[in-house]
Design goal:
single chain, 289 residues, alpha/beta
Length: 289
């Protein structure tokens, strides 16, 4: 009886979610959106975790020979010019809404240093952001490429059909999930993930006042110089800080997102390899470079 009940609940939930997600696609998604086509069999998705520093130092020539998908603030680094990534993915509104030093430098470097063809992939609702439009207007090498960030929840087969049409994608609580998804939809058959440490849990601190603090080191920073800061909801102090259970729930859903990506990749005859030197992601096959 218990198994039958759980099966009934699961089917009922997936049915309702599929209907609601389909309605959401009809309202929110832009039909006819296409992503760039793959130029080979293999690409690399570059996350900005600390281990990327060693990966680049040891395998720079390999990376230069393959299409690269970088994310977020990669343009603030010298490696941006050296490696010349073909694709650049941004997802979080934080990138264009919060004008801190790092974000400003990211867009400044994109504008001034991009001397090769670069596809800047951003959610379709951000395509008219002034900072993005200015990039394309001031630097003709940058091609603004929108995608639909419409989350589908429901039956996997229905989800995968919408994924293939670029009308929906799995929930992406980390931009790396989006970058992997786009790499698969471009048509790459081997997608190598590097620099995806995802060791945030090792950088937590709870104050005496029960305020959760964290630090997020990137490969281009000196980890010893990074200070702990309160973990604000959506990065906005006015919303208050995340509680411990909220933090772990977010990252639980993040790691689950990688499982969904792996399932989808398998249906597209694509293999995602986790080639990060350090990583807590267990959804993909490990493949040391």
């Amino acid at each position: 009886m218990e198994k039958s009940y759980k099966k009934f609940v699961s089917i009922s939930t997936q049915s309702l979610n599929s209907v609601l997600s389909t309605f959401k696609i009809l309202v929110q998604s832009r039909f006819g959106i296409k992503v760039p086509k793959a130029i080979g069999e293999k690409c690399f998705v570059i996350a900005n975790g600390p281990s990327l520093k060693h990966t680049i130092a040891n395998h720079a020539e390999l990376l230069k020979k393959n299409p690269l998908i970088c994310v977020n603030t990669f343009a603030v680094t010298d490696e941006f010019i050296k490696l010349k990534p073909m694709y650049y993915v941004m997802l979080d509104p934080f990138m264009w809404e919060i004008k801190n030093e790092t974000n400003l430098k990211t867009f400044k470097n994109l504008e001034e240093q991009t001397s090769w063809t670069l596809y800047l992939l951003i959610p379709k609702h951000a395509i008219n952001q002034t900072v993005c439009l200015d990039l394309q207007r001031k630097n003709k090498n940058i091609i603004l490429t929108p995608f639909n960030y419409t989350v589908f929840k429901g039956f996997p087969k229905i989800a995968h059909w919408f994924y293939q049409k670029n009308l929906a994608m799995p929930q992406s609580l980390n931009v790396t999930i989006t970058a992997l998804f786009l790499g698969i939809n471009m048509g790459y058959k081997k997608v190598h993930l590097i620099g995806a440490d995802h060791t945030w849990h090792e950088h937590l601190h709870m104050s005496e006042n029960n305020v959760l603090h964290t630090k997020v080191p990137h490969f281009y920073e000196n980890e010893m110089e990074i200070k702990y800061v309160p973990f604000y909801k959506s990065g906005k102090p006015e919303l208050g800080t995340q509680k411990a259970h909220e933090f772990f729930d977010i990252w639980s859903r993040t790691f689950y997102g990688y499982m969904l990506i792996n399932d989808y990749a398998n249906t597209q005859n694509c293999t995602v390899f986790n080639s990060s030197e350090v990583s807590f992601i267990d959804a993909f096959k490990r493949f040391p470079l």
